[in-house]
């Protein structure tokens, strides 16, 4: 490869410039890949024609401007702030930000059909009227400048908010005569405009302050009717003899750029929309329903066009082509919010999302921002970090969905705090069902956010019926009346009246549908079926009767007059979908940019398509258009010959594969659709499988099942044998998914199908092991063990099998469980199967705990935790933390118990496991309750109740309310204690929770003892005792004996009271519960004191106090000191009494106020 100019050898075909002579090679031959200079028409190496220069990005200054003299609006914009940025950041990072900034702020250039001429350092030169002349080019230039100023501020806030740097623009705009053409030598030309108009624009920019736009007198004269300006001022600029008069634009005087939407018979609906929107104090949902063409979209466009400019509009057009792509609607909303195209490269999307999340959640911690980003990126299909993947792997299926909705609500709330937002989803009936379900739950969480959701649809969406009726408004659009049809016809034809003779015929033909009316008028125009005289339109009777009688036919009739090239353009666009990128259409039709510009003009003029947005990705500009009415798109698509339709779909699928090879996963669903429509069933089948596997990896099990079903159907249609390995692995995956979704019968169904066609031994044993796991979860332990024993000596996964066998034995109470656990440890460790190893060690720890061997229990549970931590399995770590917390608490190691309960709460938060979060919170709350830290306990119990409601766990709610009853008793609010106990008891009895019901019986009995309602106590205690005995709940039997002892004591049956108290102590010791033991010891002291055995009573008090101190419970210690103080007073041992009262006051002072606080603080020192 040599330089054609000097003959020097080039290092590679990617060379952009000759290092010897400096010749630049901006072009690359598509055939041989050789570098070529700008002026090349044909490749200097192989002779192939070089692609038209119109195909090159205007950002890279490759737009050709025809040589001529013309009036052009010239805009210079210089970015300030990059120098400060360079001082704080790496040069490569700064370059990336500069490119992102220019991509972002130059969008209005393309939206307003301007041209970027060149970049000069940190400045950009923009032309309006050079390539695409418009009558309002000066207005476009000023509006562009104002939009660019808004966007640079937005970019600084959203992207650079954490960098301590603000970027700003200074802009100059001039309008006048220029010469367009090429400048440079023969080999290296540049195309630009020259003249005094350009020079003045640049000097206006140089004179503008940061954040200021200066426009010339010529611009002012051409735009003053549309733009509001400041008073004129004069500035002195270089090479000008006289000062230059200039102005600062301060706003648009009228609705420039807004669609002139004329609605017929829709004033009531517009007023209603405005009223709902204006009066909304919380989030509202508005449904606009009606048949196709009735004017739903036009109504919403009119409504949103009249909203204040400071209200953010998020408009999404649901496309039938993407209806089977899960999360498509939700991800599109997110892409729209952060202003990035889904087709943008992943790195840009990730950077934009992270900066935007950081911007709207700037008051939150770094971890909270990262978590929000992770879940939003998950929905948007972006790459996941290993840390986040570990979190997802540890989460339950339903927890992922709930946390996803929670994080979306956090994001939307943050967004709505910065500005008012309206979300519009047009044709939501075409949205994917996964997004709809998420959207419904999201709206429920946004009840306190002032935002509005507007959905259009042809029918009611049932999923939204679960939202509170007072937050949903439904507008059903009616057909136009005869007068309305006449009025619309007059609007479209620019006249005032319509001859009344054919009103009935026209109304019958158009059926009062505005779309049909428009197509009727277009057909009448095309066929020349009317005349206008004196502002009245007269239709030809025979002409009207001869028009097609249905909407599809009349649309086709109206399109029949288009030339062949334009028809092909619309056909190709209809295959892509409701929205389409021009670059995709160009690839399908293989035309250059100039031809594409010609092709889009007529469909735009006929209102068939309209520009939607501009996408700039890595310097490449792509315009997005959309069909104004999806009905027209459908008619065009259905009219394509089958062979042509298949060709378009095949070429489109192949183009996506080629263009997006690195990020193909995002397009799997679309490729399924295109290759199926192309008749390439093998390719479609491949992408069905890949899509199903992707959704399984993404924990989107419903969508995975849908695509596996389509995959199996495709295999069947291809005539493949059922024993095909493809079907085998699909059945296995489906079985696993149903298992994870806890649909065990369906899991067995598909695993047995897999078993029937499995041939390889490893497959057979793996399937059987999965079936055994299903049986275990169904509590069919014998069936599970039968399978395990059958394959035990054949399967390679012996460690996993032993762990499963151990789990079943543990649930059955089989003493061999511990032996198997210890045996499998060595095997699992050798195979580095740390997940199953952690599960097995956990089982061993629990088994030792049930045997009362606390040391071995702690040893194995700690090992289990460490192995789980080694592989970042947060689910196992949560379970181990809870188990360790309970054991440490039982052993009286309160600080360690508190440490592990807190750890389990944090880990549960991390994986959004609300069930374990509630369990950990309740356990920690009980610990705080026993320590006398009532406020902390109450906070945890209240939060547990709230979370229990959230996950609809009546069991967890029952436990939280039960403990709230205990708390209310301790602080002396007996009425609330009764209330919570009764609520908890009601749940326990309705849900069939006998032990929890019995615990509530104890609580209510205790209250009745305190309030003197002795007649109610014995029955409740006996009911509780029977349940505890049947369930072998030794710890609660200790409580029963203690309350029975109190009852006998208050009935003055001292011997019986002592007997029950001793039983309480024994049961507490048997269950190794020191807290219950100390309470029973203190009670025994009271009984003995009443019996006159003071020495023994003092001994009991001493033991209870020591236990309280050991358990770090100031609350229980205070009560022990107080009881002994009272006895010392009786014994007239005043000095010892004084000391105990002092200790009681110190201890009670370290806890939260309760009923004992007043008792102890008001007690007097003995004389």
From TrEMBL:
GO terms for molecular function: adenylate cyclase activity; ATP binding. One of its GO terms (biological process) is intracellular signal transduction. The keyword ATP-binding applies. The keyword ATP-binding applies. Residues 73-205 form the Guanylate cyclase domain. InterPro entries: A/G_cyclase, AAA_16, Nucleotide_cyclase, P-loop_NTPase, TPR-like_helical_dom_sf, TPR_rpt. GO terms for cellular component: cytoplasm. TPR repeats lie at residues 728-761, 838-871, 878-911, 958-991, 1078-1111. Keywords: ATP-binding, Nucleotide-binding, TPR repeat. Gene3D superfamilies: Nucleotide cyclase (3.30.70.1230), P-loop containing nucleotide triphosphate hydrolases (3.40.50.300), Tetratricopeptide repeat domain (1.25.40.10). Pfam families: AAA_16, Guanylate_cyc, TPR_10, TPR_12, TPR_8. PANTHER family: GUANYLATE CYCLASE DOMAIN-CONTAINING PROTEIN, TESTICULAR SOLUBLE ADENYLYL CYCLASE. This is Adenylate/guanylate cyclase. The lineage of its organism: Bacteria, Bacillati, Bacillota, Clostridia, Thermoanaerobacterales.
């Amino acid at each position: 490869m040599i330089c054609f100019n000097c003959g020097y050898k080039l290092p590679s075909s990617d060379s952009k410039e000759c290092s010897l002579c400096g010749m630049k090679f901006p072009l690359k031959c598509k055939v041989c890949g050789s570098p070529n200079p700008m002026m090349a028409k044909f490749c200097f190496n192989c002779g192939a024609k070089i692609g038209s220069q119109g195909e090159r990005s205007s950002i890279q200054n490759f737009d050709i401007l025809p040589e001529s003299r013309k009036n052009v609006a010239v805009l210079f914009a210089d970015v300030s702030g990059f120098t400060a940025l360079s001082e704080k950041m790496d040069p490569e990072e700064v370059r990336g930000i500069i490119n992102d900034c220019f991509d972002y702020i130059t969008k209005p250039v393309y939206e307003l059909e301007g041209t970027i001429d060149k970049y000069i350092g940190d400045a950009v030169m923009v032309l309006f009227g050079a390539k695409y002349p418009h009558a309002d080019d000066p207005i476009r230039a000023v509006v562009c400048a104002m939009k660019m100023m808004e966007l640079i501020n937005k970019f600084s806030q959203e992207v650079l908010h954490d960098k301590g740097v603000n970027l700003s623009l200074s802009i100059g705009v001039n309008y006048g005569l220029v010469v367009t053409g090429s400048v440079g030598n023969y080999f290296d030309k540049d195309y630009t405009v020259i003249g005094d108009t350009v020079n003045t624009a640049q000097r206006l920019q140089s004179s503008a302050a940061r954040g200021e736009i200066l426009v010339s007198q010529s611009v002012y004269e051409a735009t003053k009717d549309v733009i509001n300006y400041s008073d004129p001022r004069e500035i002195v600029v270089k090479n000008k003899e006289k000062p230059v008069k200039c102005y600062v634009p301060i706003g648009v005087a009228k609705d420039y750029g807004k669609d002139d939407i004329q609605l017929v018979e829709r004033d009531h609906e517009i007023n209603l929309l405005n009223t709902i929107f204006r009066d909304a104090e919380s989030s509202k949902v508005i449904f606009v329903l009606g048949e196709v063409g009735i004017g739903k979209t036009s109504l919403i466009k009119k409504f949103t066009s009249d909203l204040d400019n400071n209200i953010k509009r998020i408009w999404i057009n649901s496309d039938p082509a993407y209806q089977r792509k899960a999360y498509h609607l939700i991800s599109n909303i997110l892409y729209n919010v952060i202003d990035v195209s889904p087709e943008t490269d992943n790195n840009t999307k990730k950077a934009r999302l992270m900066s935007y999340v950081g911007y709207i959640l700037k008051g939150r911690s770094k971890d909270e921002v990262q978590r929000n980003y992770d879940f939003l990126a998950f929905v948007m299909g972006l790459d996941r970090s290993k840390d986040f993947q570990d979190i997802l792997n540890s989460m339950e299926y339903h927890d992922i969905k709930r946390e996803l909705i929670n994080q979306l609500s956090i994001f939307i709330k943050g967004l709505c705090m910065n500005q008012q937002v309206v979300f519009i989803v047009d044709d939501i009936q075409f949205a994917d069902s996964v997004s709809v379900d998420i959207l419904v739950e999201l709206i429920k969480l946004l009840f306190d956010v002032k935002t509005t959701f507007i959905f259009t649809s042809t029918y009611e969406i049932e999923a939204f019926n679960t939202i509170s009726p007072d937050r949903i408004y439904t507008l059903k659009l009616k057909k136009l009346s005869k007068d309305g049809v006449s009025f619309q016809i007059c609007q479209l034809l620019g006249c005032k009246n319509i001859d009344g003779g054919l009103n009935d015929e026209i109304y019958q033909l158009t059926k009062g549908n505005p779309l049909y009316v428009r197509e009727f008028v277009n057909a009448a125009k095309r066929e020349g079926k009317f005349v206008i005289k004196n502002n009245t339109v007269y239709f030809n009777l025979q002409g009207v009767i001869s028009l097609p009688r249905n909407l599809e036919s009349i649309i086709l009739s109206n399109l029949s007059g288009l030339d062949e090239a334009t028809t092909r353009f619309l056909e190709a666009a209809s295959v892509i979908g409701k929205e389409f990128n021009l670059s995709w259409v160009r690839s399908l039709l293989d035309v250059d940019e100039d031809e594409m510009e010609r092709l889009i003009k007529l469909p735009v003029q006929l209102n068939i398509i309209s520009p939607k947005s501009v996408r700039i990705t890595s310097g490449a500009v792509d315009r997005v258009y959309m069909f104004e009415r999806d009905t027209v798109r459908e008619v065009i698509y259905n009219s394509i010959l089958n062979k042509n339709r298949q060709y378009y779909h095949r070429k489109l699928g192949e183009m996506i594969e080629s263009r997006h090879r690195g990020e193909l996963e995002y397009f799997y669903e679309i490729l399924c659709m295109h290759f199926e429509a192309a008749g390439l069933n093998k390719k479609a089948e491949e992408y069905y499988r890949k899509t199903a596997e992707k959704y399984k990896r993404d924990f989107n099990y419903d969508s995975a099942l849908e695509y596996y079903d389509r995959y199996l159907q495709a295999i069947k249609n291809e005539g493949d044998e059922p024993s095909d390995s493809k079907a085998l692995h699909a059945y296995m995956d489906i079985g696993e998914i149903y298992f994870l979704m806890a649909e065990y019968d369906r899991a067995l169904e598909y695993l047995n199908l897999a078993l029937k066609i499995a041939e390889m031994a490893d497959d057979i044993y793996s399937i059987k092991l999965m079936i055994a796991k299903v049986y275990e979860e169904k509590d069919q332990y014998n069936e599970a063990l039968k399978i395990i024993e059958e394959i035990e000596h054949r399967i390679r996964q012996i460690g996993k099998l032993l762990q499963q066998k151990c789990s079943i034995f543990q649930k059955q109470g089989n003493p061999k469980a511990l032996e198997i656990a210890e045996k499998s440890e060595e095997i699992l460790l050798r195979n580095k199967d740390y997940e199953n190893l952690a599960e097995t060690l956990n089982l061993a720890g629990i088994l030792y705990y049930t045997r009362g061997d606390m040391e071995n229990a702690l040893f194995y549970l700690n090992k289990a935790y460490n192995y789980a931590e080694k592989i970042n399995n947060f689910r196992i770590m949560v379970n181990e933390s809870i188990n360790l917390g309970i054991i440490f608490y039982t052993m009286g190691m309160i600080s360690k118990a508190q440490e592990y309960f807190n750890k389990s709460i944090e880990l549960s938060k991390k994986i959004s496991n609300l069930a374990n979060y509630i369990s950990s919170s309740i356990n920690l709350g009980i610990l705080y309750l026993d320590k006398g830290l009532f406020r902390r306990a109450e906070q945890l119990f209240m939060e547990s109740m709230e979370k229990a409601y959230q996950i609809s766990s009546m069991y967890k709610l029952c436990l939280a309310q039960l403990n709230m009853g205990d708390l209310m008793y301790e602080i002396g609010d007996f009425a609330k204690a009764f209330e919570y106990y009764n609520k908890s008891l009601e749940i326990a009895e309705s849900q069939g929770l006998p032990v929890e019901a019995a615990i509530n019986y104890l609580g209510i009995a205790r209250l009745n003892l305190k309030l003197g309602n002795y007649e109610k106590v014995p029955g409740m205690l006996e009911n509780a005792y029977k349940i505890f005995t049947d369930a072998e709940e030794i710890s609660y039997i200790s409580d029963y004996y203690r309350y029975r002892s109190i009852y006998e004591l208050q009935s003055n049956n001292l011997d019986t009271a002592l007997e029950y108290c001793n039983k309480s102590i024994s049961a507490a010791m048997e269950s190794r519960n020191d807290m219950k033991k100390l309470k029973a010891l203190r009670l025994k002291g009271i009984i003995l004191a009443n019996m006159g055995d003071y020495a023994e009573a003092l001994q009991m008090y001493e033991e209870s106090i020591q236990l309280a101190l050991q358990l770090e419970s100031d609350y229980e210690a205070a009560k022990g000191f107080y009881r002994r103080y009272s006895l010392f007073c009786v014994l007239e041992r005043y000095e010892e009494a004084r000391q105990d009262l002092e200790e009681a006051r110190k201890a009670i002072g370290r806890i939260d106020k309760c009923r004992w606080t007043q008792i102890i603080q008001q007690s007097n020192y003995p004389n």
